Amino acid sequence: MSEQRLLEQIGPSEWRLARTGAMRVPGVIYGDPDTVAQLESDERRGAEWSALRQVRNVATLPGIVGASIALPDVHPGYGFPIGGVGAFDLESGVAVVGGVGFDINCGVRLLAVPLSREEVLSLADRLGQDLYDTVPAGLGSTGKLRLPIREIDRVLRDGAHFVIDQGFGTSADLPFIEERGRMEGADPSTVSDLAKKRQFGQVGTLGSGNHYLEVQFVDQVLDAEAAALYGLARGQVVVSIHTGSRALGHQIGQDYLKLIAEASRKQGMSIPERELVCAQIGSDAGRRYLSAVACGTNCAFANRQVIAHLVRSSIARVCGVEAEDVRTVYDIGHNNAKIEEHLVDGERRPVLVHRKGATRAFGPGRAESPEPYRSVGHPTLVGGTMGTASYVMRGTEVGMDKTFGSGIHGAGRALSRKKAAKRFWGETVISDLGSAGIRVWAHSKRGIAEEAPAAYKDVERVVGAAQEAGINRAVARLLPLAVVKG
């Protein structure tokens, strides 16, 4: 006899986890049958980390509305699953440290280069080497922009605006950055001096782990209307920049994990696991945490803005184009908590949306999208692996209704970093990618092993599930030419 299913299919690539025990809302999981079978298997065998258990735990938190949501790239995280979305009522709900994580506003900026794959192919080696030499990367890397504490406070308040004032890019970038490159409500006094000191030399650095620069080209256009509005054409070269708030964001997470835990105890909350410590949104602890998250968000915007400037300089040197002709398509984060207006139980009202390894994916008509993109919704940027495709996608009206306007952010891990490092050799991964025509520059061979393409899910399946469910729509498929890994 087959085992009873833990999840009920309620639509194409859409599954429901029924309310049980202390769950206040159901869980809703998006994914193909293989993804769902793996989630159920992990839960049944009592895996140490189970994304399905985390979906259930998030559903128990005070003030959650709608559902505890997992997107097709779901895998276990700290507290929230990665690929997890949870929205909370502003009066009864909570701010959750695990709903944002330690790399606040980790995200992707996509730059469009006015050159074709054919024009860049012979220059790819030189360009990859120049990017490796130009953009500081690797564990503990520091950049050329070294700022005293008072200037770090300006980064935390003003984000991309501050570094543009310092000569890194132009104000033409700002409309094409989420929140126009500056999250409101950022008060630097809510960030510890230790966090600021850890950041003073890291603005404009790529970091390590899964952070990368990738020179890519548009392999396929899948939504002609949106691609035309985004300025993307088949064969066009683009560059993806994937990084976040570096040491500052990590320290904010560490600091507030302790502070919010104390607030949880004082507020008498029953928390299913330590990483889900939370505080009422309107409490002093909740307000301070959300302000610190806004500071971390602005730090990440500034970081990607400086790196974009360095990338433009490199492209200009190697490829002979004007730096200002390398255009920002969009910059979007995937570890955030934001107050947004959504439809809840038939009523449009503000809620606090946590996205952990998930992007905002607003469909047509939302004022938050750049005006040139508003008729189709803003782009979302979905990273694959060094050896597979990445995608530009967009939000849909279905996604607005079902996922609080959220989208997938990547392929999602299939193996932990520890398991991947045991299974793969960095040198072999680099050699195999080179044989496939993809050159890799690495600051850490172990990091390459941890990020081996086989350590991730099949991005085509993940994108396909999001499309089949109707929550996100693919606009363009990107393939890699050269990769710089932190």
What CATH architecture of the domain at 107-414 and 456-485 would you give? Alpha-Beta Complex
Global outline: globular
Which value, in Å, is the CA radius of gyration? 21 Å
CATH superfamily label of the domain at 107-414 and 456-485: tRNA-splicing ligase RtcB
Q: Percentage of helical residues?
A: 25-40%
Structural class computed from helices and strand pairing: alpha+beta
Write structural notes for this entry.
- The structure is a single chain.
- By secondary structure, this protein is an alpha+beta fold.
- It has a domain at 107-414 and 456-485: tRNA-splicing ligase RtcB, CATH 3.90.1860.10.
- 34% of the residues lie in helices and 26% in strands.
- It is built from 15 helices and 19 strands.
- It has helices at 33-44, 51-58, 117-121, 124-134, 149-158, 160-165, 193-199, 224-230, 246-266, 284-319, 397-402, 417-423, 426-435, 445-450, 459-469; strands at 8-11, 14-17, 27-30, 64-75, 82-89, 94-96, 107-116, 212-221, 236-243, 278-280, 327-333, 335-344, 347-356, 358-360, 379-382, 390-395, 406-408, 439-442, 472-485.
- The strands form 4 sheets. Strands 7, 8, 9, 11, 15, 16, 18 and 19 form an 8-stranded mixed β-sheet that branches. It has a 7-stranded mixed β-sheet with strand order 1-2-3-4-5-13-12, sandwiched between helices. It has a two-stranded antiparallel ribbon with strand order 6-10.
- Helix 5 (149-158) crosses helix 10 (284-319), helix 7 (193-199) runs antiparallel to helix 9 (246-266) and helix 9 (246-266) packs antiparallel against helix 10.
- The longest helix has 36 residues, at 284-319.
- The chain is globular and about 60 Å long.
- It starts with 7 loop residues before the first strand and ends with a strand.
